[in-house]
C-alpha cells in the first residue's frame, strides 16, 4: 500500500476512536441526566464507531500492513446543553466524512482499488450518520428548552422512531 494512504488510514482511526470515546461519555452524561432514550442512542453510536475503526484495522491487517492505535484524549464530562451535545455529534460526523473523502481521493490517486472498495462502505455509512445526527438536532431545536418537548424526543429515541436510532435495545439492557 502507498505510504501516504497507509498514514491517512491510520490517522483516520483516531477520529473513529475519539468519536467512540466521546459518544460513550455523552451516553453516561445523558443517563445521569435522566434521558435514557438519548443515552441508549449514544451508547449504540459509540459501539458503531468501534466497529468502524475495526473495519479499517482489519483491512490493513488483510493487506499485510500495520494498524497503529492512537492515543485518545479524555472526553468532556459535561455538555452545556442537549443542543450543544447534538451539535458536537454532527460536527464529529462531518469531520469523519471529510476525512473519508480525502482517503477516497488518495485511494483513487494511487489506483488502490481494494482500499477504494473498502472506503466506499464508509461513504454510504456517513450519509446515514450525518442524516441521523441532523434529525436528532432538528427535533431538539423543535422541542426547545421545555422539559416536555425534550422528554418526547427522548421517548422517540427509546422507541427507535427517529432515523438512525435502532428500535432494538442494546445488548446488556437499557441505559
Ligand atoms: Fe464512524
**Corresponding CATH architecture:** Up-down Bundle
Our count of domains comes out at: 1
* Portion in helices: over 70%
In N-to-C order, the SSE pattern is HHHHH
Q: Distance N terminus to C terminus?
A: 42 Å
| CATH homologous superfamily classification | Ferritin, core subunit, four-helix bundle
General shape: elongated
Structural class, from secondary structure content? mainly alpha
**According to CATH, what is the topology?**
Ferritin
* Portion in strands: under 5%
Hetero groups in this structure are: fe (ii) ion
The gyration radius over C-alpha positions equals 17 Å
How would you sum up the major sheet?
none
Tell me what you see in this structure.
The chain has helices spanning 3-32, 36-62, 82-109, 113-143, 147-159. With 175 residues, it is mainly alpha-helical. The protein has a single domain (3-159), classed as Ferritin, core subunit, four-helix bundle (Ferritin). Helix 1 (3-32) packs antiparallel against helix 2 (36-62) and helix 4 packs antiparallel against helix 5. The chain is elongated and about 55 Å long. Fe (ii) ion binds at residues 16, 19, 49, 52, 96.
Amino acid at each position: 500500500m502507498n505510504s501516504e494512504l497507509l498514514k491517512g488510514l491510520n490517522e483516520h482511526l483516531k477520529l473513529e476512536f475519539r468519536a467512540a470515546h466521546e459518544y460513550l461519555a455523552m451516553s453516561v452524561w445523558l443517563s445521569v441526566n435522566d434521558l435514557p432514550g438519548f443515552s441508549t442512542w449514544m451508547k449504540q453510536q459509540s459501539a458503531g464507531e468501534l466497529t468502524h475503526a475495526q473495519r479499517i484495522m482489519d483491512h490493513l491487517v488483510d493487506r499485510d500492513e500495520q494498524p497503529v492505535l492512537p492515543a485518545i484524549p479524555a472526553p468532556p464530562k459535561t455538555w452545556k446543553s442537549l443542543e450543544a451535545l447534538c451539535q458536537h455529534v454532527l460536527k464529529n460526523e462531518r469531520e469523519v466524512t471529510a476525512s473519508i473523502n480525502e482517503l477516497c481521493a488518495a485511494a483513487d490517486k494511487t489506483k488502490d482499488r481494494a482500499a477504494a472498495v473498502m472506503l466506499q462502505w464508509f461513504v454510504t455509512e456517513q450519509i446515514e450518520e450525518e442524516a441521523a445526527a441532523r434529525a436528532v438536532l432538528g427535533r431538539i431545536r423543535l422541542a426547545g428548552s421545555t422539559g416536555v418537548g425534550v422528554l418526547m424526543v427522548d421517548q422517540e429515541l427509546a422507541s427507535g422512531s427517529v432515523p438512525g436510532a435502532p428500535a432494538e435495545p442494546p445488548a446488556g439492557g437499557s441505559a
